[in-house]
Amino acid sequence: xxxxxxxxxxxxxxxxxxxxxxxxxxxxxxxxxxxxxxxxxxxxxxxxxxxxxxxxxxxxxxxxxxxxxxxxxxxxxxxxxxxxxxxxxxxxxxxxxxxxxxxxxxxxxxxxxxxxxxxxxxxxxxxxxxxxxxxxxxxxxxxxxxxxxxxxxxxxxxxxxxxxxxxxxxxxxxxxxxxxxxxxxxxxxxxxx
Length: 193
Hints:
By secondary structure, this protein is mainly alpha-helical. The chain has 2 domains: 1-111, no CATH class; 122-193. It has helices at residues 2-30, 35-40, 46-58, 65-73, 77-119, 123-144, 152-174, 177-192. The chain starts with a helix and ends with a helix.
């Protein structure tokens, strides 16, 4: 039985390796002419990257990875220029998508803040204060008192959950500094182009 499992695993590994070969070959073939697209071939945007390569070389999105790799390996200077252009367009599209995502996030936060201001609702403020107070109360109990035996795990889980909620409350009321830094970086890159 164990020998059969090993054979099954070896066959599955061989199939997975065989499936990965065309993309690997394509990635190596494209790396010099279109490095951004080549990087994306191994990630979640692999399909979009293959479509961009296919459009650049064949003018359509229907080409197979092996066919594209073969064409890139034997590319004419005009096709290499088209690949460079496709790489630049792909990179620009990714940046535009990131900027749009930041705009959507900013609009979402602004909408939530506007809603709270217009409704004059104390519920978010009271909930936020209770969550923060609960976090510091739980932390204080864990530091100041000896916890009952076996309760450390439960208190740690409570503290972790409250810490996560506290971070969400702070980000809701004051914004995320990480998001602000990223937005500033994206805007400065856009200004340089």
